[in-house]
């Protein structure tokens, strides 16, 4: 494992869907990845599909590895490297500092428009730690994330847009914020259903931009660790589906397989914030997740908080003031003014196998074996594998 420089030269994950749309002929979009023109294209997002993890398991993923030899680009997830951020970056073609979805959990303030500024759980769109307290009426997704999505742009130009996702994702807060614009939403939970739905959409005559999602690999990695037997079984099942799709994909259609992040085994690197009172002193909230923490400080306390975190986590995390993290390019080239307040006054990015858990405040999340979010290449690098149809 190695840390990725925030100002690296790799193309970003945010370029993938925009390049696909441009390859279909959509106007005013950039084909950053130089994808070959296609009649229809579908993005298959495998949650947790890290490039290094796929390459390390060639026997479990022969189809993915074979396809990657000739038709793959490695892209960088961006920061934080976590699902809500990556999906929004993919769908808008912009980094987190532009679209404003800044982590698994973060303060939902936006220029004072939300008086309570709750800590938003962006996957469930609720108050973090209180799943029954929905924020869908308070933090209105379309107002909170205002960047136009690529699906909206394509649909306005007359392209057919489709999304194949688990039923719970349809009309969720995150889907409304990140992925809005699909002309049709199709529910698919299992891999067989996903494969069938992808092929059905790819055989229609209309020029279509599609998106499909599967989360089983990520779940296995969180619970048992990347590279564990349950994780490898999921990888084998996904690889078999990819092989079937490659054989049946009609000519003129393209399937692009990518991930939203990779994963790090943090079972030996747990650091429990809740056992160190000095890390909570002077804070109003600690958000983010185990690999990246947004730390919100009391007025005038940010310097002391930064010193405390830097001292306690020396060698285990890079700890920066908000402005320094922004200047370092962590959230992209620029951060919009009303989005700055959502970032922690202090931002801590884990290094090595460190997980900054909270055993008392986040008991379930603290048990996870695999985590992601920071700058390690194992969590940042994901493949963008293009499979072009040949079936007649």
Descriptive report:
Helix 8 links the parallel strand 7 and strand 8. This protein has a seven-stranded mixed sheet with strand order 2-19-10-1-9-7-8, sandwiched between helices. By secondary structure, the protein is α/β, with parallel strands linked by helices. Helix 10 packs antiparallel against helix 11. About 1% of the residues have low confidence. It is 32% helix and 23% strand. It starts with 14 loop residues before the first helix and ends with a strand. It has 16 helices and 19 strands. The protein folds into two domains: 221 residues, 3-Layer(aba) Sandwich (Alkaline Phosphatase, subunit A), CATH 3.40.720; 105 residues, Gyrase A, domain 2, CATH 3.30.1360.180.
What is this structure's SSE topology?
Layout: H1 15-23, E1 40-46, H2 51-55, H3 62-71, E2 72-76, H4 83-92, H5 96-99, E3 105-107, E4 119-121, E5 126-127, E6 130-134, H6 141-144, H7 150-156, E7 160-165, H8 173-178, E8 184-187, H9 191-202, E9 208-214, H10 216-224, H11 229-248, E10 253-258, E11 264-265, E12 270-272, H12 277-280, E13 283-289, E14 292-297, H13 302-312, E15 317-321, H14 322-327, H15 337-340, E16 346-350, E17 355-357, E18 370-371, H16 377-380, E19 381-388
Parallel strand pairs: 1-9, 1-10, 7-8, 7-9, 12-17
Antiparallel strand pairs: 2-19, 3-4, 4-5, 5-6, 10-19, 11-18, 13-14, 14-16, 15-16
Helix pairs in contact: 1-4, 9-11, 10-11
